[in-house]
Design goal:
It comes from Petralouisia muris. By secondary structure, the protein is mainly alpha-helical. It is built from 15 helices and no strands.
């Protein structure tokens, strides 16, 4: 029997590695497709060699490569934030968008940009992330207060949705009454978009997200214990208060980074972790964390490609496309959970 258990463990490990490799290949494939497909078609040969064409070089290096890199990084960050929140609240439909965290970050960024840009002051990448983080923490604070008063997790999600609506209403008021032309353009950002990314943006988000994701990965063992219950986690020496604080802070940083650059993006933080969980057939954080990141990147790269091409030359907001593919997954999760509760 020990041999059988060892073989079973090897098979599971092979499955996990295979899924990670396939997700990595998928991310690379959609990354290349995002670079090559657009209003100007670029062949793979032109992408690799660029054939001395100055126009193609400019399109690649100034527009498409930074945008694709941003989608790759922020898509993974959004999925990872969703996984952390689902673990924290033990709720399969918890996510930055549903709980109103993205809306809080959006409100803070809009207020800062309107206040500074209205006075002719430039807004740095760091300032946008900091503002988004404070807004995300503000919304998260309200959600945590609600969680202490409300034991029903469904009502907690409803509370998060209400917080999101309030923050979105404030943002819309700010954007609507802004007179500056640059500030009015915040409307496109407020609906979710990866357009207009620069290499400076990519550098900042890469540093912030990579450090945060690495810190989350280091939490794999305590997260695994936490998933088995608070009592068990305490018995094996996990500092529950510190772990929960880290989950809140890291999920808020990841959500802030996304909103600061791309605006609020719906359903990715819920759908991607569940799709990855189905592929892996496990909830072990040591495998789920890298797989969630890659899964979110694949999901967002695919949706951004459709957003650019479905109604070209008109570009859809990224949230429109992610909702089309993400909402059915959320409905499926809710129906499945309801059936399980009646068994």
């Amino acid at each position: 029997m020990p041999g059988t258990r060892g073989g079973s463990k090897r098979n599971r490990t092979c499955r996990y590695i295979t899924v990670l490799i396939l997700l990595g290949i998928g991310a690379l494939l959609f990354f290349i497709l995002n670079i090559c497909i657009g209003s100007v078609r670029i062949t793979l040969a032109e992408f690799v060699g660029q054939e001395g064409n100055e126009t193609i070089t400019k399109i690649l290096w100034d527009i498409r490569l930074p945008r694709a890199a941003a989608v790759l990084i922020l898509g993974g960050a959004l999925s990872l934030a969703g996984y952390l929140l689902q673990t924290f609240f033990n709720n399969p439909i918890a996510g930055p968008f549903v709980l109103g965290i993205s809306s809080g970050a959006k409100m803070a960024v809009a207020l800062v940009m309107v206040f500074l840009m209205g006075r002719g002051v430039g807004v740095s990448s760091f300032a946008m992330i900091l503002a988004a983080f404070l807004g995300a923490m503000l919304s998260m604070g309200f959600v945590l207060l609600a969680s202490r008063k409300i034991n029903n997790m469904s009502m907690l999600v409803v509370s998060g949705v209400m917080i999101g609506y309030i923050c979105s209403a404030v943002t819309e008021l700010v954007v609507t009454f802004a007179e500056d032309a640059d500030i009015v353009n915040l409307h496109n950002w407020s609906r979710g978009s990866f357009s207009g990314m620069t290499w400076e943006n990519v550098e900042v988000m890469a540093v912030v997200v990579s450090i945060t994701a690495f810190a989350v990965f280091l939490m794999s063992k305590p997260l695994a214990a936490y998933q088995l219950g608070v009592v068990y986690a305490r018995n094996v020496g996990v500092n529950i208060r510190l772990l929960r604080a880290c989950i809140v802070i890291f999920s808020s940083i990841l959500s802030a980074c996304i909103v600061a650059y791309a605006g609020p993006i719906s359903f990715v933080g819920i759908a991607a972790p569940h799709l990855v969980k189905k592929l892996l057939n496990t909830v072990e954080p040591i495998w789920m964390i890298p797989a969630c990141f890659l899964g979110g990147s694949v999901f967002c790269l695919f949706c951004d490609l459709l957003a650019k091409t479905m109604l070209a030359p008109t570009e859809l907001s990224i949230s429109t496309v992610t909702a089309i593919f993400g909402a059915p997954v959320v409905l499926w999760i809710m129906i499945k959970r309801r059936k399980e509760s009646h068994v």
